[in-house]
Amino acid sequence: MKREDYISWDTYFMGIATLSAKRSKDPSTSVGACIVSQDNKILSLGYNGMPRGCSDDEYPWERDGDPMDTKYLFVCHAELNALLNYSGTNMEGAKIYTTLFPCNECTKALIQAGIKEIIYYSDKYKDTDSVKASKRMMHSAKIKFREYQPEHREITLKL
After folding, report:
1. What is the C-alpha separation between 95 and 156, in angstroms, rounded?
2. Catalytic residue (choose from 4, 58, 62, 79)
3. 4 is catalytic
4. Cα separations in angstroms, 127 against 72, 123, 130
5. What pTM did the predictor assign?
6. How far is it, in rounded angstroms, from Cα 29 to Cα 38?
7. What value does the mean pLDDT of the chain take?
């Protein structure tokens, strides 16, 4: 008889996105992403952080102040990192699990890459123009998006 307390695909992939977010050095918003093929194979992972070769000790992590002294002009978002980390040639029809609803810039890249579904954990910036623009583009491009529905299970990893 098979085990019956296994986790769903959604929980599995959102768990991987959440674990990926733990790699982020952002003190205020750690985001993780996991891109998955139509047949539930992991294609790529990403988290928000500085671009390769740009030390996270030399670039700012602040949220407020002069733009050149904040993270916003420098940080590469988790979704974009996951797209850039992909080493294959085609992710048409894939889906992405992300811990935060994608911004408009990441949404453009996700659309261009062929992502067809977005499963997100948090939509805490839903009232911003960036997320409103994202949802408008997703509707036009016929990309499904849905909020992750937690199973309310606790899984402990000893690493």
Report:
1. 26
2. 79
3. no
4. 18, 9, 8
5. 0.94
6. 29
7. 95
